[in-house]
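Can't paste images in this forum, so I'm doing it all in text. The chain is below; anyone willing to post the predicted structure tokens underneath?
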Amino acid sequence: MNVIVLIKQVPDTTDVKLDPKTGNLIREGIESIINPDDRHALEAAVGLALSEALGMGADEGILLSDRAFAGADTWATSTTLGKAVEKIGAYDLVICGRQAIDGDTAQIGPQVADYLGLPQATYVFEIEAVTPKSITLKRRLEDGFERVKCALPALLTVIGELNNPRYATIDGMIGACLEKAPIRIWNAADIGVQTRDVGLDGSLTHVIKTFAPKFQREGEILGGEVKEAVGKLVGKLRENRLV
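Text version of the structure:
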């Protein structure tokens, strides 16, 4: 089974700050990490590979790197990723994390699936069975779960309940350094896209303004005996339609 995992590099913080002039993320001085949800996607792929006795870890890495990719919204990013997957060619499954901590849109997986014309399953928390032609899984819903049998090839987005991502081993990191798991770098020309279709130029949405909402809290002490104070509290809640 050939599995493609889409991974994003994100700032190592949930306190994302935006440049008020450009609307872009401020990354200076913040260490980058693998997006947490994408680690679960990679673990899922490795687990499937192990079941097929293909060994542990990813066989190959591809870095999409081009100034033309900068400033992309989810539409342009999905175009870039979709083109890269098409160039890779033969695959049975594409796995993504549910969402990235720097954007929280959860749009990339579904948009890539739409670009590639693949069936998709989102919020996957359990993979029950895999055959050469289908995958059976459970996807999380607000009030329970849904069991889905999906034809392959397909695209999945996964959540943290799916697994516990393993730590990178010393041997694995040494192997990567020795180019046992080669990393290729592809630019816009390599994947066959026009620069006008990707990055900021290819984005359908643009940030006009960013700001941090201001919150002001006010406290009020309700005096009197307990019964009287409770009555006042209930009255306040009803006034604000909270009960």
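The chain has six helices and ten strands. Residues 50-56 have pLDDT under 50 and may be disordered.
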